[in-house]
Amino acid sequence: MVNFLFLALFIAITPLANAQLHFLAVAAGKEYFGTATDNPELSDSAYVTQLSNTTDFNQITPGNSMKWDATEPSRGIFTFSGGDAIAAQATKNGQLVRGHNCVWHNQLPAWVTNGNFDNATLTSIVQNHCSTLVAHYKGKIALVSWDVINEPFNDDGTFRTSVFFNTMGTSYIQVALNAARAADPGAKLYINDFNIEGTGAKSTAMLNLVKSLKSSGVPIDGVGIQAHLIVGQVPSTIQANLAQFATLGIEVAITELDIRMTLPSTAALLAQQRKDYQTVIAACKATKACVGVTVWDWTDKYSWIPGTFSGQGAACPWDENLVKKPAYDGIVAGFTT
Ligand code: 9MR
Hints:
The protein has 337 residues and is α/β, with parallel strands linked by helices. 43% of the residues lie in helices and 18% in strands.
């Protein structure tokens, strides 16, 4: 109660320009506002200062260091040093963590991709990987959720081919979810994907997958909506789409938000980006089941976008010099209006 009064007072006296994203998220009924981060960035002290500003970020997601290539580089040999460094950062700051991720077609060691395992062997490999990874962090960090399955669909809503799908069919999904549940019964288990922000074939496929998992008694607590978006192209159905997921009795989260543009950035593009951030945040705010929002790093200095989409960038709410952009005010407006 005292905390709540303090928070209410803080928000009341905080001018918009200094508004704090986590406090505003909580005032809007959410559990967290957070950001991705990555191990190489932790040696940048100016970066770490803002990463540790828990009035903006009370949640972090490791961008890479809990993935399969980092955590089980050889079969049965687990290395948690990178993930543990992010976990230690979160614990030091009192921040929540989203675990990311157990099973993904990308960033796999060659021994998994090229192992030619049969169904039974790969099943036990997936089981062992998920249970060892999830068990390692159980009780060590303030975990909000695990992305147990990452990016299972193609954009047309068909299942993505991968070593897992090709060998095990869709059973890899339930194998991973069951293993994660057994390893940490308290962790919320998510399936996470991109291009499911608006209604459409891929979002429908995700809805159908969740329905079928639930009807078979497979544990599933949430859907992560990545939201790697493009300035001026936020789907107009985003709020309706979030509402559809909510009707399944699960939670949703915006897990990897960034909104890219073709460079150079202009005042007009930054103004549109501000609106776009506001639209996404407002959709989460309006959806009770939407528990939080994570940006896929907070500064353009460490964004993945320019390295993947040539000529594009400026996708984050802070610029390369760690200065807030209009997008920051868009997030504030999304939570407060
Ligand atoms: O941010 C991550 C980047 O540093 C890696 O190079 C990349 C490799 O695939 O993965 C990025 O994170 C991805 C996330 O794990 C899943 N959704 C898409 C993200 C951007 O590619």
